[in-house]
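Final report, results section. Input specification for complex C-07:
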Amino acid sequence: MKRYLLLPVAAVLAACAAPGPVGERPSVAPRDLEVITALLKRDFRERGQAKMDRVNLDDVQRACNLHGDNPPEAVAKPLEEAQLKAIKFPNGSLIGDWKNGEKIAQNGRGSMWSDKPGVQPGGSCYNCHQLSPKVEAYGTIGPSLAGYGKIRGNRPEIQKYTYAKIYNSKAYNLCSQMPRFGHAGTLNEQQIRDLVALLLDPASPVNQ
Amino acid sequence: MRRIAGSVLLAGAAMAAPAGAQQQSPYAEYQRMATESAPIELYEIAGEELWKKKQGPKNVSLEACDLGEGPGVLKGAYTHLPRYFADADRVMDLEARLLHCMMTLQGRSREEATKRVFGNADKGSEMELLSAYVAGQSHGLPMRPGNAHAKEKASIELGRKLYFHRAGPWDFSCASCHGEEGKRIRMSGLPVLFKPEYAKPLMSTWPAYRVSTSKIVTLQWRMNDCYRQMRMPEPAFGSDTTVSLIHFMTAAAEGVVYRGPGIKR
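Structure output:
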């Protein structure tokens, strides 16, 4: 039985207790991140496919947590460049099948402890974005993508940018709220190509 | 009947939340009807039976449980939680404290007492029913969670940091969804729970009957299910992590009149 309070965690929690005003965001120091990660390691346990390594922070999460999602240019630029460099583009066409893309965009399951391991996750796109104007139940955390391809065209640079943005949104905006679907291994190459088609194919409902 | 009348009021209060869109929501009528038929009163009655039921190796009831206002005192207990408890030397919310009483008074193990903390539509869990009963005894009182003791201040501050802490494969924090005003996921509005104007109508109605799943849910369940959707591993029931988050959000609702047990979408 894990017993409540590991001493170092308790000591630091008590020490960093200058209370901020109600309704305000916290100010976060590097030490806070260590304390919180240690706390999560103590308080959480793996379940199903959600293993404990998920509480570990990478350098992007660390920078965004430290800077309240608004890091200075000098911090953000090199990290964005490193994220961009790590994107793996497929050989051949970046445009898949928009019909599959629509299904992936609708599917909000995957990667949760309640999901069956091995079942390919969806992209949860409609949770946050408007895409096909026919779908009324869309979220608004991200911008509307209705007419995405009609507005931007279908040039190779646009295809490449769109693939990369889905693969790793943080390559363009370090603290974007959008998951890094390729980088995190959530969506595979084929799925991302299908989503690019959903956004760019002139026949896709997104561009009607 | 008090509860049913109160619940209708509550639905009104929820609709007056600053997510102004809710006011004209096509669900308003549905919500009103659902509220009238919500079996909250039955949950409270079942919870009262469990409160008085002799259980565990020591074969005693929970009637001597000290929820902060003294052994067995229920009125105003819920509205002063979470708070610091000297006997456990930590801050506890209602559910962590009920678990503490099950272990200390009734002599039950943590494993046994937490085996089924989240129930289903067929049968609410012991923890959920007890929560409904205890919270119901504070209906109409102002919510004043502990904020004087050093560990209470630390707990609220930790909750604030956790609320904004991004982690996991999808880089989510609570604020990823509940950080900006006027946003929604699909059709669900997203309250900004660190702001008093959002925290007040929502934190004053837990635990609640959840219409979409026809079951009673608690704040510990809410924390658990948000972390599931954040793609994180599972937080332990009543852990400092979940209690601090609940404490932080309840502190943001400081002073609001408790109108629960309530109803959620």
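The first strand of chain B starts at residue 83 and ends at 85. Residues 1-23 of chain B have pLDDT under 50 and may be disordered. This concludes the modelling results for the funded period.
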